[in-house]
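Q: What would this chain look like folded?
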Amino acid sequence: MKKFYYRAKDWSGKTVQGEIEAINRQNVLESVKGTGLVPLVIEEKKTSLLSEFMLKSFGKIGLKQISGFTRQLSTMMTAGLALTDALSLLREQMVNDRKMYEVVDTALNSVRGGLPLGTALEKFKQDFGDAYVASIKAGEEGGVLEEVLSKLAKNLEDQSEFQGKVKGAMVYPVIVVIGMLIVVFIMMVFVVPKLTSLYSDFGSKMPAITQALMDMSGFAVKFWFLFPAIPFGYFVIMRAGAQNPTFRLKKDGLLLRLPIVGELNTKTIIASTARTLSMMLSAGISLVDGLKIVADVSGNEQFKLAYLKIAERVEKGFPIADSFSEHEIFPLIVNQMVATGEATGKLDEVLLKVADYFATESEQSVKALTSAIEPLIMIVLGIGVAFLVVAVIMPIYNLTSQF
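A: My prediction, written as structure tokens:
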């Protein structure tokens, strides 16, 4: 398939332009005419291999971009604009965002060609996610696309806000820790060796603490290449292990068992999956299908396995509350709230309350974690500085005391 740029006019005389994928120019011509437009220009679009690589590697659509697109589309359609008109206006606004322009342009051309919006977005499922595409399809089938878009926008905005708070709270500790590691590396590789070479001229036996510092510095100078190799090796192992289901299951299980961080991770996942499942249920997607989609977007193999087993039991006719209670990975309050939602027939509303509850809990946990990390960092810094000072001064003190 090749990409073609076209410029055409509609029956009102307005100029329309866009991109379309096709085998040849004739197919493009037929496609454009089929949408009721009069083609003016059709050109094959040449794209370099480097630009394609950069787009695939670094052109992933972010959550804020999807959230903004959804909110704008929802607002336009609620105001009475037709889907094609709304997409056409959005495309004009995305001129400086190549990836989103491609998404909107593809969706517009597909809708003009008679395809549903959900089908058009399937090509970009990797960016939008299964839950988003499935909700759009359900909204179109039920004739409530505007309502679904509004709920999707609200869900994405809440998710983006929550992620922003978590990332914002962790910025300071991460920067300080990275700074500490860089300073330690510079001290051990460049500064300490000069001091130790000076001490070696004394010809006297070094204190134990100074000798320990000299040994650590010697190791750092000799094997300095291991420091950048460690994060690279970690990245390679994680990428290779991501292809192995057993590795992913054990790794994610370990993450959930880590003190403090594991509990925060659990709360974050439950908040995200409960909000997504609530949104899908309110869009008209069946509970079983919603559970299967949530399993794929949970981002954790332990939760994925739990949701798939729950979906299997619900499909067999078991109550959803009983299915949740069989998995210890879910806190007791989740089981109780799900049982209430099942009994009252308002599971989507209850799941939204569950999401809000755990989102609040996650924010509080992050604040507590950052509050604990800051004094801990100061303590570690103090111990490190004290160790360096004592190790550097002790030989000088011992030498002067001999006179």
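The CA atoms of residues 119 and 137 lie 7 Å apart.
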